[in-house]
User: What shape does this take?
Amino acid sequence: MHKCFLLAVGLLVYGLLPAQQFGGHPTRTQWSQINTDTVRVIFPAGYRQQAAAIAGMVHRLGQQTTQTLGQDFRKISIVLQPQTTISNGYVGLGPWRSEFYLTTPQNSFDLGSLSWHRTLALHEYRHVQQYNNFRKGVSKAFYYLFGQQGLELVNSAAVPNWFWEGDAVYQETSLSEQGRGRLPAFFNGYRSLWSAHKHYSWMKLRNGSLRDFVPDHYKLGYMMVAYGREKYGADIWGKVTDDAVRYNGLFYPFQRAVKKYTGKDYKTFRKEAIGYFQSSLATQPQDSTVDGWAQQHRHFVADEEYPQWMDDQTLIFVSSSYKKIPAFYIRNVLGGMDLKLRVKDISLDNYFSYRNGRVVYAAYQPDIRWRWEDYSVIKWLDANTNQQRTLTHKSHYFAPDITEDGTQIVAVEVLPGAPSSLHLLNSADGALIKKLPNPDQLFYTYPKFFGNGQILSAVRNPKGAMSLGLINMADGSTEYLLPFSMNVIGFPTVHKDTISFTAAYKGQDRLFLLVNKKLFLFTPPVFTAATGHYQLQVAHGRFAWTAFTAVGDHLEQGVLNGSQLRPVEAAEFSTAPANFQVTGLATGKNTLQDELPTDTLYPVTSYPKAFRLFNFHSWRPIVEDPDYTFSIIGENVLNTLQSELYFNYNRDFRYKQFGGRFTYAALYPWIRLGSVYTIDRTTTSLAGRGVYYNTWENSIGLQVPLNLTSGRYNRALTVGSDLIYNKPYFQGIYKDSFDDRSFGYLSSYVSFSNQLQTARQQIFPHLAQSIYLNYSRAFINRQGNQFVATANWYFPGFSRDHNIIINTAFHGRDTSATYNFPTAFPFARGYVGLNQHRMFKLGANYHMALAYPDWGFANIIYFTRVRTNLFYDFVRVQDYDYRSSPRPKIEVDFRSYGAEVYFDTKWWNQHNVTFGFRYSRLQDLSRLNPSANRWEFIVPVNLLGRD
Assistant: This one.
């Protein structure tokens, strides 16, 4: 019963915590702050203007939008992270804070074109308001019982994730001239399902799938939230969530609240909400081979992106699927054969440019030491020889293009806090030739060389409006080919005097051509009326483009003719973006988009790195059988000190521990401190008598984490060493027979992992290595040593979602038996583990998927995959009989084989949990292992711990 309760708590908590980077800032970083009664914006030098704008928007949001959720208020700390190339942001508990990743994204179709830090403020501060008003009733009780993570636990169980994100998307849309709710691409997912007549269950829409494309909860949430406000008023969700977080009615509180305030049961409400958007977004059906192609395929096929003509018969593009990682492919359009050129290096997107046998693209490159610093470097690939070079290092370049003769590259440099700029680079070595002036303070996206001395780019002005510009390479001046508007533009391509691009147009993303500055709407013969059309390239009298479908981005190509082009007036782009019949959205310019007062409005002061260093925020149970732990945990806002005070009970050996551990990462290497008092330890003396003792162990150590990721592989290396000082206290009638002097030992370790990128359906990487080495040696008042080495080797199986894993391990310790060090040796499954003089292991595993059920019940548990692992373990143990003289050598084998079945699930429609069962058949029985059959329930993750 006890275990079941802990498991239930674990299922709730697992997966709630946002991804956070511990440490990661160079020690030289100096932090400043704008500290008001509403928000504390923490930022490094050079970002005062963005910090002031964010502080100003937060104050206005607090004044204008609280009435829709409630009046409760708590101050938030927002940390600005400008040195990562990832565009993101989050608000979280444990600790209570927010982080904004300030690099502006290139793709305007996904997140819009508004000023990025303002978009983050509009969206993320809504999450702050949600948390502020969700500490009530039962949720408040859990806050007092378990701290901030306890509050997050019950909030997420009461309020579905679609509401959290849908409500925030609604705010970013209603309080701006754009927002995702006005972007046609935002609705492509559901439009594609409706077009292909794919009618998924509610639980599948909520939980996703490993074999089918399912739009995420942002899209679903926006439709639900917007419909609720349209139909029942702006305060509907404030009333619903107020009841839900109080757990009024206890079971299914959110569903009960929806019925209470709308008069419709939850099932009816959600059907009406989706139906409302389906009727407003649907277009007239047309004969379309694209729609038909999507209907013919039952499951997700593949994404085929950024097609570009190599000649009049050959296309190069990037393809990826749920079973394959992104790679460059070459297709003969006459024969239809695809040739795989090369797996693409790890990148933030699949964009690339091709000219005359040469491919250039931007790849992700993290800093070796600092986790909050990463880069976007340019890769150069020869499509004829398949040879690739890295041209730049520690750069922030995006969306490169190469000249026809292959001598120069243009790329967008994005440094947060400064306007973007176009850099001309030497393609031989990546050296900077010229930085183009940017007199209009534009943000450039997807630049292309055009004609003599010009560069084409989809550009955004400081207000977020977009146009298509021709930039003069001599002085940076820009000729605008379209009027500025909030309709997004992107993916321009060039062939001689013809420009093609995608733009939002009358509620859809459509394809356009500019020929001698005359604008044409391109309607291919395989036109799909349902979704967006992207990445058009016209060359050699042919066209190629991609269509968004329910089974992947599908590449289409054909012969270009005049009937496919319809003249369009450029003025048509100046119309306001579509509201998609959500009449509650603001129709005019909102004051939140106005230029805020100068940054002198808010005084800036220094932010001490030691401010609230010991920030205990939560207390929680942790289950890692046989260990059961209750911890009080803390972490400061800058992620530089992790603190934990804990009590642990070990079920196997029945000892109890009281301790604390701290890791300080503001310096490099990291500093680790720990202290633990253990009672009721047991061991066996040389004479075979039971010995009982307590220990007090203190440690100090250094850790050097290194990120060696590059190319196609994620790599990590961690080196560390801990000095441990141990004092035993022997108990019982034999306590005076043992040496109770304190002693010290040094424990040093190396951990290395190297893994290929992993596709969605792959259980493990198809190629990977994981190695751990540990050496411990006593050197104060006692002699002893131990060496442990473990390694796992990953290989592909007979199918793309199969894996072969070989386990190898060695354990060796001295023969004095004066002290047994803790060991991480992975013993043969099914047996009770040992700690002997010499131990060797060889294990073989075959992991494979059995089924993808995409099925659940009662909105409680949903099964995404059932998989199995067939295993064989062999362990040989060598030791000596210490009771005899001379000591004869003993050698014993431990062999087992069996199977594991794992269930990859989601609980309460949002928390990923994997659990399973193991059957082990033991071939070597003994007093410790008397039964040949062993059944175990296994949870291969720490349900309550961080990812």
In short: The two ends are 27 Å apart (CA to CA). The chain is about 15% helix and 40% strand.
